[in-house]
Amino acid sequence: MTSTTAKAGRKEWIALTVLLLPLLLVSMDMGVLYFALPFISEDLEPTAPQQLWMMDVYGFLLAGLLITMGALGDRIGRRRLLLIGAAAFGATSVAAAFANSAEMLIATRALLGVAGATLMPSTLALIRNMFHDPAQRRTAIGVWTAALTAGATLGPVAGGLLLDHFWWGSAFLLNVPAMVLLLAVGPFLLPEFKDAAAGRLDLISAGLSLVAVLAVIYGIKEIAAEGVAPRYLIAIVVGLVVGFLFVRRQRTIADPLIDLELFRDRAYSASIAVNVIASIAMLGSALFNTQYMQLVLGMRPLEAALWSLTVMPGIMVALTVSGILAKRVRPGFLIGAGLLLAVAGFLVMSSARPDSPLVLVLVGAGLVAAGVLIATTLTAEMILTAAPPERAGAAGATSETGSELGGALGIAILGSIADAVYGRDMRDATVPGVPADAMHAANDTLAAASATAGRISGGAGEQLLDTARNAFTHGMQYATLGGAVLLTLAAVVATVLLRGVPVAAEAEARAKTEAEAEMAAEPDEPQPRIETDERTRPETGTGARARPAGFAAAGGDEPVRTRR
Predict the structure, then answer these.
(1) Which of 208, 217, 291, 550 has the least CB density, counted as fewest CB within 10 Å?
(2) Which residue in 388, 383, 376, 381 sits closest to 398, CA to CA?
(3) What is the mean pLDDT of residues 9-28?
(4) Picking from 179-193, 284-298, 394-408, 537-551, which range would have the lowest pLDDT averaged per residue?
(5) How do beta strands 193-194 and 531-532 pair?
(6) 354 with 468: CB under 8 angstroms?
(7) What residue ranges do the domains of the chain occupy?
(8) 236 burial level (CB within 10 Å; 0-12, 13-18, 19+)
(9) What is the pLDDT of residue 530?
(10) How far is residue 152's CA from residue 149's CA, in Å, rounded to a whole number?
(11) What are phi and psi of 194, to 5 degrees?
(12) Are 205 and 250 in contact (CB under 8 A)?
């Protein structure tokens, strides 16, 4: 059966490039501060706790507000929220660049996190509005996913280049031209979409979701950095309890932030779970890859970041091939294959030694990234198409919140495995000529061992560094093998749970048949109203066309579903 789904034209693809601007910058802003921190410390003289807040407050608020902002965009308009967020992100970036105190920089970083939370769910939800053809939407989501990854990779590169020539504030001013461009062309290229039937935003739910996510991610990150302590465990428990209260409230209020009924859909819930596990793998791989190149091979941060870019062409080829295969192969099998490709990457990384060639780690990290992106591109599409169009913003935000949680877990779980093996090996090691206190200081991390070895003259310092590098790679071997086991289990579960999800073409044909049958059976059923921007709606030239209530589709032109 031939699909009548309208295909996106040149305007929609140009609009996609506009959407990538905020996405790149939000993900870049997560890492650019690492390069700027030494210069900021010299200029603003922050205390140690203030330095930690400079680093963490952006990511904490970004993760904690994603669900709220996704639901807000569904209510007030996704384009409107995106443009508001872009204006706030640009203005706050200027304020951060010229901050004259540690307290001001912390405050502006916090506001950047709030603004960033408005940008990420809006970009993904607007893709749902612009690309109704399943194949085109899959390509657009693949580009979106690749841009998110590229931003995290380019952040250190851009930060290093700017800080070589300008003052530390230039790293924040990088955001301004892109946001100005988005504000200039966004109103003309991007469609507007909001749920006219949505009720008011429930502020109690928003507060509960913020506290739950912040508490859990804070506890996990601190355990990963400092070790297990009662206060961090209490933070996680508090977050879980508040999360339970949030879920219970969503079951009872008329207009929840998250439609919990979506989790009854196996494709939706399994896709969310895959995203969490894939993020564990991605962040764990990035952690080891970065440390190996800088601390084992002795590269400078900018040099390591530039070498990391060499895997991007291979990743793009893998995404292109998976997009072609998705026309004929069911997504459950492709997701399983992508996760197994990432398993292969971890196995390659597990064979690394201090004297291994750089290409070994790059190939391993590239395979992990390619496999994870194949899986998450497909799950992102299933998450968007499982949710009704008026809830796409909240659905996408739930997925991204899961990814943030997975990233924190990746650093905590895999990092803890590596640290435990490293610490055991260093405690068991004896290096002649190294004082006991210096040996004890080197037991914490490879970075600490490198600093300690630099203060010891003669061959003893070099021998200490060699011992620490061997201990680090030993820990990395165990951690990457643990990641391989986790991803193997995820691949099996994803394949089993998602094997019934049809190929996009099959889903579209089935949805059209069901829609025609329902329209014939209930020709006079009133339609829900969805507000759209008539100038940019791709189906017609005169505005949105209501679709039959209850029209369910696993791909193709998505339904508008009525509220229960």
Answers:
(1) 550
(2) 383
(3) 78
(4) 537-551
(5) antiparallel
(6) no
(7) 512-564
(8) middle
(9) 46
(10) 5
(11) -155, 160
(12) yes
